Design the sequence.
């Protein structure tokens, strides 16, 4: 493993313009830890009920109110990105329920409080 790490671009100026800093080497792996992890399999199929409430798409009306084209582009990019993430989540968690709330704020529980509470009640009432 490399003993360097890269700083984010916005931090370069604070660190003399260099994007890399030297870190100490990684400690050797413990034989006890290696033995405990030998043969461990990742559990990827635990069927549990999941509720995912997602703001898709976000409300961009307060950003660039005079730039309609820029806001439309941001909305299209946001829709594409979140739709793709939602689909991956839904496929990966088949026992999950994905609720998409359009034109919601990032803090969806604040911007759409009534809808979030209704979805929580539905979800909780469906549990055994």
Sequence:
């Amino acid at each position: 493993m490399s003993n360097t790490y890269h700083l984010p671009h916005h931090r370069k100026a604070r660190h003399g313009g260099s994007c890399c800093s030297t870190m100490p080497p990684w400690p050797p792996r413990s034989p006890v830890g290696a033995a405990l992890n030998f043969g461990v399999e990742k559990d990827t199929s635990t069927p549990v009920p999941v509720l995912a409430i997602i703001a898709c798409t976000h409300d961009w009306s307060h950003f660039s109110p005079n730039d309609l084209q820029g806001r439309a582009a941001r909305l299209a990019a946001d829709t594409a990105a979140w739709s793709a993430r939602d689909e991956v989540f839904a496929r990966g968690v088949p026992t999950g329920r994905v609720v998409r709330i359009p034109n919601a704020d990032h803090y969806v529980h604040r911007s759409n409080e009534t809808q979030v509470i209704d979805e929580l009640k539905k979800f909780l009432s469906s549990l055994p």
Remarks:
- Strands lie at 4-6, 20-22, 50-55, 96-101.
